[in-house]
Amino acid sequence: MSGIPKSPSIFITGVTGYIGGDAWHAITQKYPSCVARTSCLVRTTEKGDQVLARYPSIRLVYGDLDNTEVIEAEASKADIILHFASIEHVESARAISRALQRREKFQQATYWISVSGTDNIAWKDCENNTYGEQPSDEIYDDWDGLSNVTSLPDTAPHRDVECVQLAAGGTFVKTAIVCAPCIYGIGRGCGNQRSIQIPDLARYTLQKGHSLQVGKGLSIWPNVHVADLSDIFLRLFGEAIQNGTRASWNHEGYYFAENGEHVWGDVSSLLAREAQIRGLTQSAEVRSFEAEEADNQIDFASLFYGATSRCKAIRARKLLGWEPRHADIEAAVLEALEVETRTLKI
């Protein structure tokens, strides 16, 4: 097939978010000229001003994910679509897919790169209500075990969105999904620079005077630094603009991002212990909650801290030459504690 133009048009969502903001920073550092050819979906003038302050030549498109006509129109004009805004919003994914169906019909080369999350592979604990229990030895991978990942049950988290993305690929339309785990590190984007899981747990520890674990606290999650996650997006973007053949796309275009794993009970204990050492709390207590009560303490706690999600990122390493540079999850936990302490002005 013929490739995309040498100066491709780009449509991006989620550029003021944690993942999208950092990924766009990485991309524009290497490919600064692409900014002037990019349209960016933003919800408000405040968000738009944030984007323009960093990227003055970008074209703003105002709307949210429910404005599917706007999304479909912009996607239909783009050679590369970077969809970072949500892993849960199926109608925006369908809007992009409809635009790509037309581009496929008219044989217009297009790349759609989107983000997902490894809570999808935590589906068994969600269905069996085995939160915080001793995890099984099952570890998903995106190479030999790829078919197991792309055929998860429909009840798996955000499976409906992934199905739309996986079905959108064709001869001229190429899709890739980057599945992010627990992300740590301070983002470099123009908007939100804060992750969710570890910072929320750190904030809870400081506010309540104790940390939290779900059940026995034995659940395991993979992790990656936000800059290393962005490097996968950067490498896929580079493959797209160069019409390269190293990357795999469509049903083989599924990339885990992972550089180690942690036990959530250990993270909770570290936060509680360090908060006490620093004089921020009176004790190093970690309280155990069952799933429903944990969700009353922190939004999505049962899923984020109680369900096990294990994977190996093989595809990006093999095909894209991805070599993550950050691997100190303990340092990341302590950094999050410091940031939340300053934010709360303790």
Automatic annotation (TrEMBL):
Start and end residues of each NAD-dependent epimerase/dehydratase domain: 10-93
Membrane-crossing segments per the record: none
Database matches in Pfam families: Epimerase
Recorded GO MF terms: aldehyde dehydrogenase (NAD+) activity
Domain of life: Eukaryota
Protein name: NAD-dependent epimerase/dehydratase domain-containing protein
GO cellular component: cytoplasm
